[in-house]
Write a structure and sequence with these properties.
Largest sheet: none
Oligomer: single chain
Radius of gyration: 38 Å
Structural class: mainly alpha
Helix content: over 70%
């Protein structure tokens, strides 16, 4: 129809216009991430996650962290070596570093003096390559670290350990004075004396002293008289004696600390009833000091074992490590037996009362007659509930008492692994940062390569039924 043609052209034009507007509006509403050239790929998302992980805050508990700076501050005590060293953390580490460096320089000077200062550069390089002198300053620094940490955790946790006991602060101060008094010097020397004696005997009589100390393949052995002890050997002996004295101090703190805990528990009780003590594990602070000492023993043992395998030291170093572990286990066992002994009487007394209540309720239930009425039923239910409650309390007390110390022992093991876990956490933290930087660079390169010019698309209108093609 001629009249319908203008109408059909107008309708077709309108439909084409609406289709174009819809396409443009859809493109405008599209999110920025879906547009070509601005897509956030999986590489970039992984990089962002790693950056967040690397810079995430890592809050630490000062009481649980053995290496917290507060444990390095000086606490008043009679140990002569600690009193000679500075009190602040920064000056203490500075003094320890200077001492270790000076010891190494003294060893080098004695080596050059023995060789007559001939070919100084070559002999200095040979001294640097000596395994004994590579690790001896590091081992001495580890001793300085453990020296202040052992004293720090025992002195600072002393009052917290007895928070739930009925002991006066004045009495605790008296125990602390006994614990850190002048006897610490004599006890440390006494505990180190067997190892010092062995070092002296081995130094004086061993024919293979130099081979054991520096290795049979060391070129230094070809330049000296191995049947006599020179100044460098005497200086090494002095360092070993100094380290054994610090070792005796560690042993004294662990054993005497357990003895103090045992003495206080024999004379004092917990403030709360035994069921509350077991439920809330109020005895746990008594094990915290031993657990933190376990962390130090593991840290010291790990470094010392590396020193032994690298330098092929004598068996005395291995014996010292074994004794340190034995003393740590002994200290934990003494604390565990003291806590069990303190609670044993109270637990057995509570169990006896519960058994008595159960027997009385059972006897009462047996004498009750089956009389119809709601009052009789209520009374019977009350007696049965009392019996069930007594049985549950019996089982609960026995289970808690038998499991006493298991979680603390596991905590000791985990705290021993804490230094390694802390190092691994830092490695993972910085590894995540490096991986994030690498992935970010890869994403930037790949993003630049993906930015190619896009050809405009021609939008075609759908064919309409009833419209003739030209």
């Amino acid at each position: 129809m001629i009249d319908g043609e203008p109408h059909s052209e107008t309708r077709e034009t309108r439909m084409l216009h609406e289709a174009g507007v819809a396409a443009v509006s859809a493109e405008t509403r599209a999110p920025e991430a879906q547009r070509p050239g601005k897509e956030t790929g999986p590489v970039m998302r992984a990089g962002i996650k790693l950056v967040e992980t690397a810079f995430r805050s890592n809050a630490r508990d000062p009481e649980a962290d053995v290496f917290d700076p507060s444990n390095f501050r000086q606490v008043k005590n009679s140990w002569w070596l600690d009193r000679l060293l500075p009190g602040s953390v920064t000056r203490y580490f500075l003094a320890a570093f200077i001492t270790c460096t000076v010891a190494w320089l003294i060893g080098l000077t004695l080596r050059l003096t023995t060789l007559g200062f001939e070919n100084v550069g070559h002999e200095t390089w040979e001294f640097i390559k000596e395994r004994q002198w590579q690790l001896q300053p590091l081992l001495l620094l580890v001793h300085f670290v453990c020296l202040r940490l052992f004293k720090g955790i025992y002195s600072r946790n002393f009052d917290r350990a007895f928070t739930h006991l009925d002991v006066r602060q004045s009495e605790l101060d008296g125990y602390k004075r006994w614990f850190l008094g002048n006897r610490v010097n004599f006890m440390a020397i006494g505990l180190a004396l067997p190892f010092v004696t062995w070092e002296l005997v081995n130094f004086a009589t061993a024919a293979d002293f130099y081979e054991t100390t520096f290795g049979a393949a060391s070129p230094y052995l070809q330049k000296i008289d191995t049947t006599a002890r020179n100044a460098e050997a005497w200086f090494l002996l002095l360092l070993w004696i100094f380290e054994w004295l610090m070792y005796g101090y560690y042993c004294y703190l662990m054993i005497s600390g357990a003895m103090v805990v045992r003495a206080i528990l024999k004379n004092h009780d917990f403030n709360d009833p035994v069921d509350l003590v077991l439920t809330e594990r109020q005895y746990r602070p008594l094990f915290n000091v031993t657990a933190q000492a376990g962390s130090l023993v593991f840290f010291f043992g790990l470094i010392h074992a590396g020193y032994m395998f690298y330098t092929k030291s004598s068996w005395t170093d291995g014996a010292g490590l074994i004794l340190l572990v034995v003393l740590l286990s002994t200290a934990f066992g003494m604390t565990w037996s003291a806590v069990r002994g303190e609670l044993k009487g109270q637990v057995f007394g509570a169990i006896e009362e519960l058994e008595k209540s159960y027997r009385q309720s059972r006897e009462k239930l047996g004498t009750m007659k089956d009389v119809p009425g709601i009052e009789d039923d209520i009374q019977r239910i009350q007696v049965q509930l009392k019996m069930q409650l007594a049985l549950q309390q019996l089982d609960y007390l026995q289970t808690k008492y038998e499991s006493l110390g298991r979680k603390e022992f596991l905590g000791l093991v985990f705290k021993m692994l804490a230094p390694v876990g802390s190092v691994l956490a830092r490695v993972i933290r910085w590894g995540s940062l490096l991986a994030a930087i690498g992935l970010g660079g890869a994403a930037a390169i790949s993003g630049g390569a993906d930015k190619q010019p896009q050809l405009p698309t021609v939008q075609e209108a759908p064919a309409q039924p009833g419209v003739n093609a030209p």
